[in-house]
Specification:
Elements lengths: L1 H6 L14 H10 L7 E4 L4 E4 L1 H11 L11 H30 L7 H21 L13 H16 L7 H12 L1 H10 L9
Antiparallel strand pairs: 1-2
Helix pairs in contact: 4-5, 4-6, 5-7
């Protein structure tokens, strides 16, 4: 969501929620009972919008900027939404499985689950490798909602399960994403917390 906000220079007030703080946790729970983020609170429209993809589409509808992150053409929009889901389900989720396992106490690891997660990531890398042979961005020639999903998914997946020499197109795509000013800014803001990531 931050990538989308920075792409369009959308004015917003960030709130960093420490889930260990009972008051902050309770406040988030009132907005979204699942206590997950990101959550957008649009006071002007009295709306609470959870989930990254939905927030980005909501911003495009109600607070549009110069960068159209979802194409107007229905077929291209469908491909963009598919790629958004692809990166979330087949890269981000298995990456989180590996990270979560590394954070577990001794004796509570899930080697079978981690092996399955790595297999999913490898399969996803293969798909990305083939697609990026003919594309600049995740859904084609224009930076989009799909790239907002691809950037963190590919960046952190590469940290826990490196792309390697066999995925040069995917690695070049990751380099383009990391060079994009909006994602560079997100990474710079996250840098103080990189030591907490069990890569």
């Amino acid at each position: 969501v931050l990538i989308a906000l920075y792409e369009n220079e959308t004015t917003f007030e960030p709130r960093f929620v420490d889930l260990a703080d009972p008051g902050a946790r309770a406040e988030l729970e009132q907005l979204w009972p699942f206590v997950r983020f990101p959550v957008l609170r649009d006071r002007a429209r009295n709306q609470v919008v959870p989930e990254s993809s939905v927030i980005i589409e909501y911003l495009a509808q109600h607070h549009p900027g110069p960068v159209a992150l979802l194409p107007a053409d229905p077929e291209r929009a469908l491909e963009t939404r598919f790629q958004d889901r692809f990166y979330d389900v087949y890269l981000h989720e298995p990456m989180q499985k590996i990270v979560g396992d590394r954070l577990r106490p001794a004796g509570e690891h899930d080697p079978h689950g981690v092996a399955r997660a790595k297999q999913l990531i490898e399969t996803a890398y293969g798909v990305v490798e083939r697609q990026m042979a003919t594309r600049t961005w995740a859904a084609g020639d224009a930076f989009s909602l799909a790239d907002c999903a691809a950037a963190p998914a590919l960046h952190y997946a590469n940290r826990v399960h490196p792309l390697g020499e066999t995925h040069r197109n995917a690695a070049a795509f990751l380099a383009r994403l990391e060079a994009r000013p909006s994602f560079k800014r997100v990474l710079a803001e996250a840098e103080p917390y990189f030591d907490l990531f069990p890569g």
